[in-house]
């Protein structure tokens, strides 16, 4: 029960058959899944969808899993879209400022969407061992979903990946190795080990199904907003899976008649310490060369090179959006500001989108009337917080006036 017709190379359009595992296309670019959307249009109504309860599996007609028993689920929820009312007021915007809070998903990040789909497809294909490079969240989602499916995993992390992420991956059943290099160096190890070990490479965009999982963010937000789209979406961009996936989702929704041709401006947000997509955008290039000495503590967007660079850039340009790099200080000041003033604990990558939103308003790149949607991609609890905490000695008389100041 799937509406998949075939797969195709995102660069050349070359076709591949569905129903068997694929990695990159012959020219080394991502492969996309194609559906019989006329059939989906006949089979699925908005009313039917509204009656379904289960998280993103509600969109099964637009997902590639053939047999229901192969769906690997850890209890995915429809993630809430919440207003940042106090921040909106503070920046003087009249259009809604919204956050889609992906930190509510299993494993605490939106990587759950992509890996739920990739692991479900691996189960369908009988794959027994999967491997990936990760800065943390993708590895945790792979470990959890693969363990749920009884699939073995090997995960490679840059050796400065925060301990909490590394432990999370190992604790959920993966064989984890710390590597003295960046995520692309780890990716090379996975690629080169394929023949010797026989594992399946589930690196970002190097197989077709993580995009399909991330696509559900676009389907979900459209349904949540009453089949309308925001004016602008700020997306913290690493490998760009989510941005590419949402762009694909909007096209599919239009083709099944659920939305019209309108699109949000797509804004790719990066950190100034690792901004390959921003540089390529500004230089009018279609591809983004490797960013040297990449650094940002927002690990989810510390991705020096993206195999789907041209797909990110295409979506951003077609949408009339832009790419923006925000300063490290600005990311962490925004993180603290939104937590303190709004009571919303973003992750630093999510905070980067708020920083970019504010600057875009200042620079007139978006209008104060625009309805803007930010992505908070993970729970802020996975990141070390620095806060000032005072001490109190209960063995001496307490001066209560200090609490009024
Ligand atoms: C993976 C990740 C990103 C980047 O997502 P892509 O879709 O790969 O660009 C951003 N933030 C966090 C917290 C992540 O885990």
From TrEMBL:
PROSITE patterns named in the record: DEHYDRATASE_SER_THR
EC number(s) on file: 4.2.3.1
BP term (GO), one: isoleucine biosynthetic process
EC class of the enzyme, as a word: lyase
Cofactors demanded by this protein: pyridoxal 5'-phosphate
Keywords on record: Lyase, Pyridoxal phosphate
Domain called Tryptophan synthase beta chain-like PALP: residue spans: 72-377
Pfam families reported for this sequence: PALP
Residues spanning the signal sequence: none
Gene Ontology terms, MF aspect: L-serine ammonia-lyase activity; pyridoxal phosphate binding; threonine deaminase activity; threonine synthase activity
Protein name (database record): Threonine synthase
UniProt organism field: Parvularcula mediterranea
